[in-house]
Write a structure and sequence with these properties.
The structure is a homotrimer of 178-residue chains.
Chain A (H helix, E strand, L loop, with lengths): L2 H14 L4 E8 L4 H16 L3 E6 L2 H4 L13 H9 L17 H12 L5 H11 L2 E5 H7 L12 E4 L1 H10 E6 L1
Parallel strand pairs in A: 1-2, 1-5, 2-3, 3-4
Chain lengths: 178, 178, 178
């Protein structure tokens, strides 16, 4: 047995194995408050434990990354419609269940305050400080007619496609679709 | 080349690689019958195949782990409201689609019986026998005002936070968010 | 130190490690257009990047794999009911949000066409060409009363159970539940 060769082969194999990084890749597809809370709590928790975290916001998820203070013009009719009907930013999303015309959502937000659970604003601030990367799906932006200028300011923000998500995911120890 | 050193380095690297255990980590976030059925069927299936299984019930998922026969008092108004509005236990959850005022849910339960698909009670019993671990999110319990005394009896039950889920997930070959 | 033995032990360990294949395993549980679009875009994207892709359609997901042109008879009452109420095929699914009696779904389809996003039919054709495997959950077929003869023609189609999904998932670098 040629030990040196065997060892080098094994080393190459190990280095090329997918899923070997201490990293979390998350697709945030949903657009509801409860799911976004879960996503942000998992993301900040993982980053605090020393994991590298990449979140890929797509479809309904991308609507919540709009900044309600930023206005953009020049949209076509369909884009205006989508823009109008989808929750404008992370503080306008609703619960997926028991929204009850906003009452359930308000109740939950009240409870979160009372029980000292971090708000969405605080979670985004923590995520920024902890280096959580936020990627936004370009196809979703295009489809829903969102423009880059109306997206939140965030220190680690990027626009990309599903290939980037997959490249991250296959290196990651943990992947979730939320 | 120092073969001995190289070999030891590679061994250390392999031992520290995440995702190397034959283990399934699942977040059960949803609170509906159909999703809980899927989660329990996957969990018991994996355990029967020899995988270690850890389920982390959070948010709406935690409501279904209450035992309707256990009554607890001393709750504040908000906790009573949440406790009242959420499905009390695994046999009270509804379908996420086609519930049709309970008719769809009843239809599915009838079909499950007819086709010899295990009921939720049977799935929990199997899970217990197969050693499936059930963790309940402490933050969700606190937020929704659930008390430990109203949770089901289950042989492998624990209360913990998102850090425990992540520690399990990154060692696991498979992770799912349901 | 017996280097040869140590090396062989390590090699065995590496070869038996789960999650080592450049492979994507997906459970498609949901039955809505938006989630199916996401699943198919991820699947074809991964296959185009050289990943092996296995999709496991279960529960509501399986309804969308029916071919509306194929008619089967001899169903009992319950099966007819389910068959009638669930969307018949991939072009009949609706959005999970903002369906608005079909208007939202029509809007999205219009936008997809305008923005040159592949339609469901094109995505299935691409998936077939790229070798994406589609597995359909036998238990779901049985529960909802679907017959094999009413399922779409697809080059890499198979019927199986949750054990097959798990066997695939634990070898896969990426797993998602959609």
């Amino acid at each position: 047995m040629d030990i040196e060769k065997e060892l080098l082969d094994l080393k190459t194999k190990v280095n090329e194995m997918p899923g070997q990084e201490n990293k979390l890749s998350m697709i945030v597809f949903s657009g509801e408050l409860d799911k976004h809370l879960a996503a942000m709590i998992i993301a900040t928790g993982a980053a605090a434990m020393g994991m590298k975290v990449v979140m890929f916001f797509t479809f309904w998820g991308s609507a919540a990354l709009r900044d309600p203070k930023k206005k953009v013009g020049g949209k076509d009719f369909m884009s205006k419609m989508f823009g109008f009907m989808l929750p404008k930013g992370r503080n306008k999303t609703k619960l997926s269940k028991m929204n009850m015309a906003g009452m359930g959502t308000a109740m939950l937000k009240g409870l979160m305050k009372k029980k000292n659970v971090a708000s969405m604003d605080q979670l985004f601030e923590m995520a920024g400080m902890l280096g959580v990367e936020i990627n936004i799906c370009e196809m979703s932006m295009d489809l829903m007619g969102f423009k880059r200028e109306e997206i939140i300011d965030y220190p680690h923000l990027d626009f990309c496609g599903v290939a980037t998500f997959l490249a991250n995911a296959k290196e990651s120890a943990v992947q979730l679709f939320i």
